[in-house]
Each structure stands twice: as structure tokens, then as C-alpha cells.
TrEMBL record:
GO terms for cellular component: plasma membrane. Pfam families: ACR_tran. It comes from Bacillus thuringiensis serovar andalousiensis. Keywords: Membrane, Transmembrane, Transmembrane helix. The chain crosses the membrane at residues 296-315, 322-344, 350-372, 393-413, 425-452. This is Efflux RND transporter permease subunit. SUPFAM superfamilies: Multidrug efflux transporter AcrB TolC docking domain, DN and DC subdomains, Multidrug efflux transporter AcrB transmembrane domain. One of its GO terms (molecular function) is xenobiotic transmembrane transporter activity.
């Protein structure tokens, strides 16, 4: 899948923005490899409620392709036709269904107790982020400004000519806007008559000052007789979060390892000397990634709890299931080593792989310990039961690990297509975690089982001694 950000100049007319965006959408759909195009402009009331507003001059476009499409070539072809969609800026981000949707775009919200500290803090953060090699296209919403001509009416001069500032403003507004002045009937159909000043005649301040307005004393007079004009830059959008004015800073991570870049950015921001009361919060892709990570960690915790509960019910005791759980840290070590060795970044798919490992690794340990329990029931000592189970269950455990690893190899060495539901990181975590845990499970889990068994026997012996001591002689 391809995510496209289409950014227009801040003073670009909304209707023209829509038309340009619709034209671009038609261009995207004209390609036979494209199956769906989703176009989104502006923000809804629900977005504002959850603090997820976007710029009004931004169109977000998501393009879904047929399987096997060459997205890189498609982007190259689109870039050749950029002139047709100027002055819009187009940014392309390859993404997938399982991603947060924000690609590598980072967003930071700066708040402060007053406007002076707010702008100072935003400048400090923006400057520091621009110095980071891993970030590009760093800018604030303060840059999205437009020029405005402000007309200042001299009240004394206006009154001398029988005008008030309000009447002068109304006449200027009438000349600058489309104004209905009546209706006529054409072929029995009513048509509204609209009067509009030619925009081509107003290109500079002098054109407005030379515009005539009506006064009750001198009739038509040029506006310059009673007014002056000044130019001022104004923000097109003002953001508020939790009732506080907020400056948004956006950037694009040039590195595909978004988690690594986010960690570097967080450390950089934490070490900044900001004005009193200033605060920086993270939004955008980083915030979505952190939320996804938090949710998956919660799910993994719940999964481990459920697995342990089921094993306790099945085995009828807590000792054997507790020993089995020691296989999970081994899988985590293997998964982390796999990511480090392969240089694969941590993402949502890698955590999904870790979630899969919980079931796979625990199953192997259960196969081993279940055999040990059977041997114990037949009167074997703990050490002998473990040795026999290890030799008997070695083949099925190894076979399970090998078949799972082989099944993951196509995903590991294949080329991931944008839009795929899985990625290389999932395979790396599963293969690494399973390889390490399979080897160490045959050592660590039996050791922990025997250790817990010895502790249990000692406790039972102490209870027997205590009971025999307290029993009175007859």
C-alpha cells in the first residue's frame, strides 16, 4: 500500500484544493495496478474530539495495489507528472495494512503557559530536530501562514465625507466578494444575478486604494482618501489541545527503523532546556507505534496468564507449569538476538511473532514435562524421569521446531510487498526465538523442574517433622 500526502499552500482556496485532489485521485485510479484509492481531506468532529486534527491544506491519500505490483516504478511515473498538480507538494510513503497508517511521519505538540514561551520552546525543538541526521522535512505549523491586507480607516476623514468605518468596510467587501443583486427570468426559469469585481484588476495594494466608494457628501471617492493598507502575515490554523494553544512540529524519519529514531528523538527532547511551563508531547506515527506496542504487551501478559491457568488446571499443580514458563524468557532472548543479528527493526509484526512464540515454545515444554509427570506416576525418581523424557521427547520437539522454522523461511528470505499483512521481522523473531528456546528448553526447563521438586520435597519433609514433633505420646 502507498500513502501519499498532498500539501497545498496555506492561502490556497479550499475549492481549488478539492478539485486538485480529485484530479489526482482520478490519475491514481487510471492505473490498472491500483484497486482502491482512499482520499481524506481536513478533519472531522471525531478527530477534533480525540486531538487528531490535521491541517486543512493537507490531503491524505491511501492507494491499494494488486499483488505483485511494482510500487517503486509507480512512484517514479507519478513524479514525472508533478507539474500538473502544482503548487501542491507530494510525499510518498510505502506502508502496509498492519502499520499505523502514519508511515514514517513524526509529529510533536508543543504547549506552554504563555505565547512567548510557546514560540521560544517550538523554535528550540525545531532547531534541534533539524540537526538530527535521521530526520528530514522538519517544520512547524507557524510556517503555514498567508498574507493579509488590513485596511485602516481614518475615522475623522471618513466622518468629514459622511462615511463611517463600517460603511466603508461594507462597500469594500461588496466589491471584493460575489454579491447577489436580484433575479431575472429566462425561459420561465429564475436565475440569480451576481455581481463580482474582476480579480485581475486587484493585484497590488494600490489597486484597492484606487477603488471608488460612495460617500454621502462627495459621491464616489477613492478609498485612499480615507484609508491606508498594511500587509501582515497570519497563521492559517491555530491548534489547541486540552484548552492550551499548541504548536505542531512535523518531521519525516529517513531511517526505516522508526523505533530507533523515536528513541533518539525522545532522548534529544528530554535533554532540551525549555522555557518554564513548556512541554513537548509525541504524536503521529510514533504515538501510534507506542500505543500498538502497549496493547500487544498487555495481550502477551494476558496470554501468558491464560496459558499458565490452563496448565495448572491440566496438571493439577502449580510446580510443573511454573517450570514450563521458564522457556518463555529463552524465546525472548532468541527473538532479540535474531533482530540484532539480522539488523531488523522492532515493529508491530515482530511483537506479533513474539505472541506466536508463547504458544509454540510452551507446547514444546509441555511435551517434555508431561512425559516427566507420567514417569513420576510410574514410580521413577525425578532425575531418571527427566533423563528418560529428554531422550524420548527429543525427536518430536526438534521436529516441531524444524518444521516451524522451515515454514518461516520463505517469509524471511522473500521480498516483502508493500501492503502485505506480515513482514520479515515476524519470521526473524519466530525463527530466532524457537531456535534458542528449543536448545535451551531441553536444559533449563528440566533443571528448573528438578530444583522446584527439591524445594517441594524439603517443605514436605519440614511439615512431617513439625507434625511428628507436635503429636503427643500415648
Amino acid at each position: 500500500m502507498l500513502s501519499i500526502n498532498m500539501t497545498f499552500p496555506a492561502d490556497y482556496a479550499p475549492e481549488t484544493q478539492k478539485q486538485k485532489a480529485f484530479d489526482f485521485e482520478k490519475k491514481l485510479l487510471s492505473n490498472s495496478d491500483v484497486t482502491d484509492v482512499i482520499l481524506r481531506m481536513g478533519s472531522s468532529a471525531e478527530d477534533a474530539q480525540w486531538g487528531q486534527t490535521t491541517k486543512n491544506n493537507l490531503a491524505s491519500i491511501f492507494v491499494v495495489f494488486k499483488k505483485g505490483s511494482d510500487i517503486d516504478q509507480y512512484i517514479k511515473e507519478l513524479k514525472k507528472e508533478h507539474k500538473a498538480f502544482e503548487p501542491a507538494e507530494l510525499d510518498y510513503i510505502k506502508t502496509s495494512y498492519s502499520s499505523s497508517g502514519g508511515g514514517n511521519n513524526l509529529q510533536f505538540n508543543v504547549t506552554a503557559t504563555n505565547e512567548t514561551n510557546l514560540k521560544e520552546a517550538a523554535t528550540i525543538v525545531e532547531t534541534k530536530l533539524k540537526d538530527m541526521a535521521a530526520l528530514s522535512k522538519v517544520k512547524t505549523n507557524l510556517e503555514d501562514s498567508k498574507k493579509e491586507w488590513q485596511i485602516h480607516v481614518d475615522q475623522t476623514k471618513a466622518e468629514q465625507l459622511g462615511l463611517t468605518p463600517e460603511l466603508a468596510a461594507q462597500q469594500v467587501a461588496f466589491l471584493m466578494k460575489k454579491s447577489p443583486i436580484g433575479e431575472i427570468s429566462i425561459n420561465n426559469e429564475k436565475t440569480t444575478i451576481i455581481i463580482e469585481h474582476k480579480k485581475e484588476n486587484i493585484t497590488k495594494q494600490e489597486d484597492i486604494l484606487n477603488t471608488n466608494i460612495l460617500s454621502s457628501i462627495n459621491g464616489p471617492i477613492p478609498l485612499k482618501d480615507i484609508a491606508t493598507i498594511s500587509e501582515k502575515k497570519l497563521q492559517t490554523e491555530v491548534f489547541h489541545k486540552d484548552g492550551k494553544e499548541t504548536i505542531q512540529i512535523t518531521a519525516e524519519a529517513s531511517n526505516e527503523d522508526l523505533s530507533k529514531v523515536s528513541a533518539e528523538v525522545n532522548e534529544t527532547i528530554a535533554n532540551l532546556d525549555l522555557p518554564s511551563g513548556a512541554k513537548v508531547t509525541i504524536a503521529g506515527a510514533t504515538e501510534s507505534m507506542q500505543e500498538n506496542f502497549t496493547d500487544l504487551f498487555k495481550i502477551m501478559g494476558i496470554a501468558i496468564g491464560i496459558v499458565y491457568l490452563i496448565m495448572v488446571i491440566t496438571f493439577g499443580q502449580a510446580r510443573a507449569p511454573f517450570a514450563i514458563l521458564f522457556s518463555l524468557p529463552l524465546a525472548a532472548v532468541g527473538g532479540i538476538l535474531g533482530l540484532i543479528i539480522s539488523g531488523t527493526p522492532v515493529d508491530v509484526n515482530s511483537l506479533i511473532g513474539a505472541l506466536m512464540l508463547i504458544g509454540i515454545v510452551v507446547t514444546n515444554a509441555i511435551v517434555l514435562i508431561e512425559r516427566v509427570q507420567q514417569n513420576r506416576e510410574h514410580g521413577m525418581e525425578t532425575r531418571d524421569a527427566l533423563l528418560e523424557a529428554g531422550s524420548t521427547r527429543l525427536r518430536p520437539i526438534i521436529m516441531t521446531a524444524i518444521t516451524t522454522i522451515v515454514a518461516m523461511l520463505p517469509l524471511l528470505f522473500g521480498q516483502s510487498q508493500a501492503g502485505s499483512m506480515v513482514s520479515k521481522s515476524l519470521a526473524v523473531v519466530v525463527i530466532g526465538g524457537l531456535a534458542v528456546s528449543t536448545v535451551l528448553t531441553l536444559v533449563v526447563v528440566p533443571v528448573m523442574y528438578e530444583l522446584l521438586d527439591k524445594i517441594g520435597r524439603k517443605r514436605r519433609s519440614r511439615r512431617k517433622i513439625s507434625t511428628s514433633t507436635e503429636t503427643p505420646d500415648i
